[in-house]
Specification:
The chain is mainly beta. It is built from two helices and 15 strands. It has a six-stranded antiparallel β-barrel with strand order 10-11-12-15-14-13. Strands 4-5-6-9-8-7 form a six-stranded antiparallel beta barrel. Strands 1-2 form a two-stranded antiparallel ribbon.
Length: 249
């Protein structure tokens, strides 16, 4: 969340905990429409309507942010092969959720270990528009330009995007990210983004890629695309062994 203090005409910003990228539903900032099928591992997580993104680990499991997994499993609908939330294009596959596993050390106050797995009630059928993400090796490094995608908003407080959007964001090293967020950045978090290009609310749980490899999960940040405050992601290389332990992938 954000708290603004105005004292003697000077505007000061106090970080009173991370700003979640989940509610209200919002979208990619500074991006463009993805090509249909460009990211066949992304799913929309819905509770009546889109609330978060996620990524397919294998036919039976998806990975998302732990703060996207607060409801009972039977409340969720997971849709793969989606591109336009408002139009059925024939590639969509809808599944319910049989089981949710949050990281045992997830802290909802600090968003440390903000990662969760959802087991589907029946497996996806893989094809052109639905398939698993490529996962990195445990502890693999992340650098360079990355790509994040989702159905969130194009600005802080904006409206939901019907179309899947993508944006290229630069990796931000831990030391630089800690200059913005201080001790809120802990092991298991990576940062990416710059003023004008970022993920936003409603993109939570969705994928951050290096090439075609899933390296991050949209987690939190101060506002959206605010200069000096990159987006914060759960690091997939950091949690790779935990993912494998539960999914077999």
């Amino acid at each position: 969340m954000k708290v603004a203090l105005v004292i003697l005409g000077v505007v000061g910003v106090v970080l009173a905990g991370p700003a979640l990228r989940q509610q209200p539903p919002e979208r990619i900032v500074g991006g463009t429409e993805a090509t249909r099928g460009e990211f066949p591992w992304i799913v929309t997580i819905q509770v009546g309507s889109h609330i978060c993104g996620g990524s397919i680990v294998n036919a039976n499991w998806i990975v998302t942010a732990a703060h996207c997994a607060d409801y009972a499993a039977n409340r969720y609908t997971i849709i793969g092969g989606e591109h336009n939330l408002n139009t059925n294009q024939g590639s969509e596959q809808s599944r319910t959720v049989a089981q949710i596993i949050k990281h045992p050390s997830y802290n909802p106050s600090t968003y440390a270990n903000d990662i969760a797995l959802m087991r589907l009630s029946s497996p996806f059928t893989f094809g052109t528009y639905v398939r698993a993400a490529n996962l990195p090796a445990s502890g693999a490094g992340v650098s360079g330009n990355l790509v994040v995608c989702g159905w969130g908003t194009t600005s802080q407080g904006g409206s939901l995007s019907a179309l899947l959007l993508k944006v290229t964001v630069p990796f931000v090293n831990t030391a630089t990210c800690q200059q913005a967020y201080g001790s809120q950045i802990v092991p298991g978090m990576i940062c990416a983004g710059t003023g004008g290009r970022d993920s936003c609310q409603g993109d939570s749980g969705g994928p951050l890629h290096s090439g075609t490899t899933l390296v991050g999960i949209v987690s939190w940040g101060y506002g959206c695309a605010v200069a000096g405050y990159p987006g914060v992601y759960a690091s997939v290389p950091y949690y790779r062994n935990w993912i494998s332990q539960h999914t077999g992938t």
